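sanity check this record:
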Amino acid sequence: MRRVFIDAGCNNGDSIKAFLEGKVFKVEDPFSFEIYAFDVSDFSSQIEKVFTSQKLAGAFYQKAIWINDGKISFNFTKDNSVTTTADEFSEGHKRLPRLTTDTKYVESVDFSKWIKNNFSPSDYILLKMDIEGSEFRVLPKMIIEGTMRYIKSVRVEFHDRFLLYPRKQREILKPIRKYVINYCKENKIPIRKW
């Protein structure tokens, strides 16, 4: 059995450091975990430094977590961090001119397929997810494809209340959030806010 921490949306690597300090999940010997981190913001040198300075097993992928392999668009802030996915959920999304500079296309990875191809259901996988609205597509796909059962515990930030979706689109997201939370409860997968 492998012990794995997946940091989906690791930004500048602070959440990896928080995991190692026991602030994300309470686990024995977090340094014994394989760590896989994903983020599209331009902090790759900082994240690589965390991996090398801590001699961590695993890898960093400068790719977006998504429902297929390919490219996806993101809105970036002036400091080059990500604010929102620019997918169909954010059609009509009011951009924040004081924060947002432009939309960029980045490489994406089919997260459900990646989990299935790299791990087994018997592995001990902890997932922290902060993927700027993509969780509303990624998590249901994982449930449908059975890869959510690979996960032993989840910390997720749902972005329905933070993004400026038109009211009608926010109403669409509420049942998706409820579906994911109920699925996790029914399958005894602890799920908490990140």
Notes: The mean pLDDT is 87. Residues 3-70+109-193 form a domain with the Rossmann fold fold (CATH 3.40.50). The chain has one domain: 3-70+109-193. The chain has five helices and ten strands.
